[in-house]
Amino acid sequence: MNAVARPDARPDLDRPGVGAVLVSTWRVGTPERQRAAVEAIRKAWESRAWPDLGLLSYSVLAGTDGETLLHYSQWTEQQAYEDFVRAHRDDRNAEIDAAVPGVERVELRRYGAIHRSAVRGATGTGEPPAVVVIVEADFDPSGAGHREEWVDRVFDALDEDAATRPGSGGISGRFHLSTDGGRVLNYAEWESERAHEEWLADDSRLSEAWARVHHHRALIGGRVRRYAPALSLSAGA
Hints:
By secondary structure, the protein is an alpha+beta fold.
């Protein structure tokens, strides 16, 4: 089987059988190098057989900062990723590095399957979501249940938003818990970068519900970054 690119460059976020998600960040430096790296990734993967049925999809998103790439891959289990690293990763990375020298591989985090999700539906235009907002929240890993409680508070605040300002531009949110106990990742699809910026600037973000999110006792840090879907590969027939 060969790799096949999805036409909308988006993974199937509700794909059955996902037991593990790997998320990594590369820093490449410029928009031109972002595009070159995505094309190098495409060539490296499409020129080889799909590595293993334990890998369900591999997607790449280009940071709106013009500097970074985010990799989001779905696996049947964590061991399937370990098997891929041992047998298939190095030759692909070597080809990519030859095409785009100086790629900085910043971080790799391991997550379980989706913990909670909310889906509003299609965009108002009927087009695929243009922007993916990645929210990472870091927690003291020694406390049990804090991440789950925080996610529940986010959903309470989102429910309040839906009642007070519907149609804000948010399409969906999928929350993952890292296997090391220290992070929550929200993979959120939005209609546009501007819609997300306007949502962040809205005064209702200062509500008590959102204050309970931002000031959770176990929250020790976080960041928000925006990306555009660039490439999504899965096994062909």
